[in-house]
Amino acid sequence: MTDFHYSVEPEGIALITWDVPGRSMNVMTLEGLKDLDAAIDRALADDDIKGVVITSAKSDFAGGMDLTVLADMKDNAGDDPAKGLFEGVMQMHGLLRKIELAGMDFKTKKGGKPIAAALPGTAAGIGLELPLATHRIFAANNPKAKIGLPEIMVGIFPGAGGTTRLARKLGAMGASPYLLEGKMVAPDKAQKAGLIDEVADDPLAAAKEWVLNAKEADLVKPWDAKGYKMPGGTPYHPAGFMTFVGASAMVHGKTQGAFPAAKALLSAVYEGAQVPFDTALRIEARWFTNILMNPSSAAMMRSLFVNKEALEKGAVRPKDVPDQSVKKIGVLGAGMMGSGIALVSAMAGIEVVLIDRDDETAERGKSYSADYFDKGIKRGKATPEKKEKALDLITATADLSALEGADLIIEAVFEDPKVKADMTQKVEAVIGEDCIFASNTSTLPITDLAKASKRPEQFIGIHFFSPVEKMFLVEIIKGAQTGPRAVAKALDYVRQIRKTPIVVNDARFFYCNRCIIPYGNEATRMVTEGVALPLIDHAARQLGFPVGPIQLGDETSIDLAAKITRATKEAMGNEYPASEADDLVFWMEEQGRLGRKTKAGYFDYDETGKRQGYWKGIHDKYPLADEQPPLQEVQDRLMFAQVLEAVRALEEGVLEDIREGDVGAVLAWGFAPWSGGPFSWLDIIGTPYAVERCEELTAKFGNRFTPPALLREMAEKNETFYGRFAPDQAKAA
Q: Where are the beta strands (DSSP E) in 304-420?
């Protein structure tokens, strides 16, 4: 079988149709590269062929590169994987350059055959890099389609000529949203931006017509034409100089130097802009190889692409349970969480009953969805029709009988076991025997909450993160008696609302909060030691965290931290590890400085709620130390506080799959995305070094940094987590 099918149209046009067998969307494979190369050679060698159109037999054009291509390039080079990668990437460049030049004489730029691309739908990654090498790109008038180069989002950058071609086509500034931000846009916006050339109701017919009427001048790319000047200027042009200085500052400001792919991409553009096009492609290939050899990029691709996709497709779903898609959902509690759950459920086309203590409160919860759509309509992200359709699916009421016929209930009431138990019993008296009951708790053990249920095997935890509509992760918690159908129902529901699930076993704080809380505690411990607040936050941001732990404390509210601390103390009794961090949180609570919501916390705020700088009054109680600790020490304390909890969660069986530990950490609280997650980070630094560093931290700061037995054992054997625990597909990635 072949990935690219060759046929000849009556008009003398060679039609090369991309259709990878067994895939819902085309991806570029090694076989595909060979097929495409052979098809192009055949078309260029046939004197009867007037031109070529490359299209897809699927509803979309292509979704990117099959990552096994890169793995094979490494493996085929034996002891020199960098050489194998570089040579393999240069072969791709050679193929796309062959398409671009299309048989023309390089000096005269004459004698070539027109080659066009017809995109029926989404074109991402290599799915856009290939069309960029053709002479004209036609896209279907398909608002659901997305066009762009999202590689930067998974730790690499467009390395098949997309970086060089787009920068030369749009200029460094024009290309930056698509290269440095991975922006994906609909066809009409792609045309306005210059990513593609035309939008047509029938792109294949339009492409054929253009091929038959194309002139030799239409085939010469701007960078191959005499007198070409890069839009916006090259680095040594006055305007271009300012562009590249600004771009460098912008990249460093956004990444804090923690994401190597962004810096490598900018280097490829900067260096490539100063040399001829073919040399620029070689520079791009060298930087691309550099990134592919960086363990950070491999970890990001594995976690944010391979592992994330596997979890979304049901990698941990019980295999013998039939489809459990949700038709009608009951949401108990119309506060911010319940309202958000109702919103995302209605957006997925699910009938929703939103329950609260009275109709007025329930209706306020429904208005959350109306407000969300109104904002979207103003920004052009939604339509009145979509708003009406979603709101029609939400019934806001205090009447529990409206829950009849629901197949999933999600309880999002006040975080009090007694309140939750009362709602469980009242609702179970109304719902059907087969209905699954879920609690959206962030801290309370599911096994304990399930004691209020008559059907504990149908009771499960579904932990959303706030705000529900923006956060990508959902944590599913199995209680001691939770059955496989409840797990399947939760997973199928999360798939319906297009979020990424992880499944963990029951324990206090589950997995995500179990790791987040020590992160915040370590930061507040440092404050009590006299470490400067900016140093703590900036140390975290330079590790790639979206916000520092001090700022995070203000955003999530200090009284919430105090409440969790008190509840944990009560539950653990004498086993609770008290610390100075608790004293700081309680003191802040007493001062009425509860964070952003009160416009007073670790930061000062103006009347609009905008941060005005760190609150200097905190040093009246906790004076700044005369000598501040090294940046590396602050970063190690913040990282190991989280990572060791992740290892303990795996050791204790709370985590059943390290893929969930990595994906969950990055998506839930932004754990250093460049690392791929806590287990990937440990694999990058090595388990022997991790134990050595933990022992140093233990000696200086206490037993909380004591390496777990599992980590010690792995260090002694020099094992990696993915080498020991990952499923085969994750190991291969």
A: 328-332, 351-355, 394-397, 408-411
